[in-house]
Amino acid sequence: MAEKIKKSKPGPLNPAKKTNPEAKITAARKTLFDMREKLPQEGLGKSLPKNLARPFDIGDEGDRADAERTYEVSILLSARDKEKVLAIDEALEKLDEGTYGVCGECGDEIGAGRLKAMPLAKLCIPCQSTLEKEQAHHKFGEERLDQPLVNKVEGEETD
């Protein structure tokens, strides 16, 4: 019996037909500008909380530790937001140059679905996957180097 061949829906492994390049660029530009506009509302444009401006010598050690931790988290979040703004600006430059959506590693087109989910993506899925595998392998290798080569047996003395 012959099996019916189902037509599969468009997806990452079965891309849809090409869309109008101008519509694609317009949609990407709108998404990037929206992302950039939302950042100040989420904290980039805000100053640190007022309770962080007071001296750290008020209260007990727990209060000071809590205030210092809150301060460090605020600084970290601010730095991440600044990095995101730089990445958005870089993506907007690529739009102007006509290189937005091109993989920085292999030069192939980054899929529309990936760009919709991650507008700041610089690599296509296969290249990103390869990069992540290499990073995991490198991290595993570093962790293995930190372990002693010979395990100490209980009761033995070492030189």
Give an account of the 3D structure:
With 159 residues, the chain is mostly helical. It folds into two domains: 19-100; 103-146. Helices cover 55% and strands 0% of the residues. Helix 1 (21-42) packs antiparallel against helix 2. The protein is flat. The model is unreliable at 1-8 (pLDDT under 50).
Number of helices: 4
Helix content: 40-55%
- Uncertain residue segments: 1-8
Range of strand content: under 5%
Mean pLDDT: 75
List how many beta strands DSSP finds.
Answer: 0
Helix and strand element order: HHHH
**First CA to last CA: what distance?**
75 Å
Rg estimate, integer Å: 25 Å
Morphology:
flat
* Number of structurally distinct domains: 2
Structural class: mainly alpha
Largest sheet: none
Quick overview of this protein structure:
The protein has 159 residues and is an all-alpha fold. It has helices spanning 21-42, 61-97, 112-117, 125-146.
Features:
mainly alpha; 4 helices; 55% helix; disordered N terminus
What topology emerges from the helices and strands here?
Elements (H helix, E strand, L loop, with lengths): L20 H22 L18 H37 L14 H6 L7 H22 L13
